[in-house]
Amino acid sequence: MQSTKFQRQSSFRRGGVIPTAICLSKATISVGVLSMSVHAAEVGALYQLACLMLGGVLTVLSIRMISVASIETKKWSFEDVCEELFHPVMAIVTGFMNACVCLGSAAGYLIVCGQVFVVVFPTDDATRNLFVVSVGIFVCCPMALARHVGFTRHLAAMTVGALILLVIVVAWYMGEHRIDESVTTESFLLGPGEATFVAYMNSINNMIFAYNNQFNVPQLTRELTHEPSRDGMTKVAILSTSVTFLLYALVFLLSVLAFGVAENQKDSLILDLMPVREEIHVRISLMAVMFSVLTCFQLHIYPIQQFLAYLVRKARGCSSDDEKADVVYFGRSLTRWYDIFCALGSVCLVVLIAVVITSLRAMLDFIGAFGAAYISFMVPPMWIIALRRKDEQNFSWFNKEILWSVSFLALGLFLFVFGTYSAILPILGL
After folding, report:
1. Alpha helices, H only, 74-140
2. Which of 48, 115, 123, 410 could disulfide-link 127, Cβ–Cβ 3.0 to 4.6 Å?
3. In angstroms, rounded to a whole number, what is the distance separating the alpha carbons of residues 118 and 31?
4. Please, which residues have CB within 8 angstroms of residue 391's CB and are 6 or more apart in sequence?
């Protein structure tokens, strides 16, 4: 009886499959959900749904590859796995790219907070910037000091509920104002017909960012309560990706119907709701969105801390297996002060980016193309190929797993090159 009660009490423990899946989904469901409808309004619901379904499948496969590499090498960060399978230079490049993705994502969260503040409390840019800086100092800095990714599992569950509230508010708006006049069956399904190659490619970039949670996979694999296993992380990947897909699909379908296609859609869903900001339930939903994006801040700061810790370890001549190197990760003695400095420095850099860049769409398109495509779709297949090449006698390029990994890598290279090109053009005004 007591053991049953204990199991029920610990069903949401740190390291369980369900809380791990919620943490992983929370790393994705936040800023991306707010700009999804902008792309759907350009390219059509069918194309966007196809991208989401394809992206979901690729994300599950990518997470499985990362967990396999982490478990077989017994390394729990992108930097350590890359060093084990390739070279420290590769580890530094990958860690830098991973840190850039997380910095951009975290900056996107603060941009959303600034947008919510402007919508709820109409004000000028100077006041908005002051609010963003204040949130960064008094909210984000303390959260960035958490030592475990699973620390936010309870907050993550609450924030998924907050985004469901946003879906309800969009549905209410459509019910009150009916379907937008610019929406026809053809424009809803296929888009208004004005989309260019860049628009279609940026829609894919947004999809990549929407599912991008791979930066936390090695650490979450390690934090699984039972022995880390590829099957356990596969269950986590399927569950988190399914939740992400359902919320994204509901939001962008309702948003396109409610706010229209093409130019009728603004930079984010928050700005779309500005005309009805006086409604109390709209204000509550917008504040819930702010709470939602802030609670996953730590999920993106943690990989940055790992990268900086790796750099210090290499400078000290340590390996990840050294006892003195473990001090770096677990924050003992002087190294704990270093971790605090890294966390606070990362937050300050994120705040600076959020104050300078206010366009959420441009930020997400570039991050999705440049960094997330590399981390999600290029690094994992390279890891699998490197792992299998260690067994030289049984290795073959015509093995099914290797052929699939090569195909996966080719897709990632395409998304990295052409996606980055498409994301840069609008930023440069071309």
Report:
1. 78-85, 88-120, 125-135
2. 123
3. 17
4. none
Look up residue 425 and give its amino acid.
L
| C-beta atoms surrounding 166 within 10 Å | 25
pLDDT at 353: 76
Kindly give, in sequence order, each residue whose CB lies less than 8 Å from that of residue 330, ignoring residues fewer than 6 positions away. 147
pLDDT in tens, 110-120: 887 888 888 88
- Contact in structure between 367 and 215 (CB atoms under 8 Å): no
For residue 305, give the nearest of 115, 143, 87, 136 by alpha carbon.
143
Rounded Cα–Cα distance for residues 312 and 79 (Å): 12
- 28-47 pLDDT, tens digit per residue, is 776 667 777 877 888 888 98
DSSP H or E stretch at residue 43: helix 31-43
Rounded Cα distance, 22 and 92, in Å: 29
Q: Which run of H or of E encompasses 227?
A: none
Residue 174, class by beta-carbon neighbours within 10 Å (0-12 exposed, 13-18 middle, 19+ buried)? middle
The whole-model pTM stands at 0.82
**Cβ-Cβ contacts under 8 Å for 400 (sequence gap 6 or more):** none
Region of 191 on the Ramachandran plot (φ > 0 left; ψ -120 to 50 alpha; else beta): left
Please give the single-letter amino acid code of residue 51: C
Can you say whether the dihedral through the CA atoms of 327, 328, 329, 334 is positive or negative? positive
